[in-house]
Amino acid sequence: MSSDAVCFCGSMRRQKKCHPDISRESLAAKMLTLYSRVDTLIISYYSKHKVKPVCKKGCSECCSTLFCVSIVEFFLICREMIKFDPKRTAQVKHRVLQAINYLEKEQPALLDYFKFDHSGQNFNNMSLRIYELSKSVKIECPFLTGFSARQSTCSIYNVRPLICRIFGTTYYTSFEDMYICSRIGTNNRIMDCGPSTIDIWDSFIKDILTVNYNGASYRGSVYPLIYWLYLAAQDLENPRAYLGSERRKKYFQMPYIEAKQKILLRHIL
Question: Is the pTM of this model over 0.70?
Fold first, then answer.
């Protein structure tokens, strides 16, 4: 593939100027391609319909809800954090440790569930379990900037996880009663007037989270972003070193099927 080829992420820029450190066949590229697919779907759908999504720039109400994200999404965020100055990075770490301290004192059952090994579990069932356990929990995303839920913005917007792109704009599950936010209500409202991203979500589970080996399927662990950050808290001051050559190779360079085998089958192969 020519270094002058258009980038896989949908930016229409040359890859060498956009994501020169990420191979087109890598897990990170697969994830960025899914981001592009969902963004294009949302823009295209609402440009042809009178009904517009309630979610608008500046609102961050759903950013205090605990969603599950994959480890490759977390590493893409770490890649973005390389651009942060030390003060900003320290602020993120402080917010993470505050949140975990709150969970230890007020929501120990939820924190214990995070600590459990979720690999191999049904992703939808696990996500619904976390949703049920965290209904009353409000932990603001450490990457928010601003002063209130109506005035905050996302400081990692370009690499925000898939669930952040879908939530409030499309439906990815048939769970109608899932509460979204005070402005939207439940998922049923979106199902009535918005597009479906169920196929994109299925691709996320299949292409990013799951590997088949010897007739069996294996799936990696997923956690809320706040917990991924907590697991890496000791290394957040230097995200470049934290990513390191080995992680960059597996997630950003290696062909994604080979990478998934090395990551998800590390205790088997």
Answer: yes
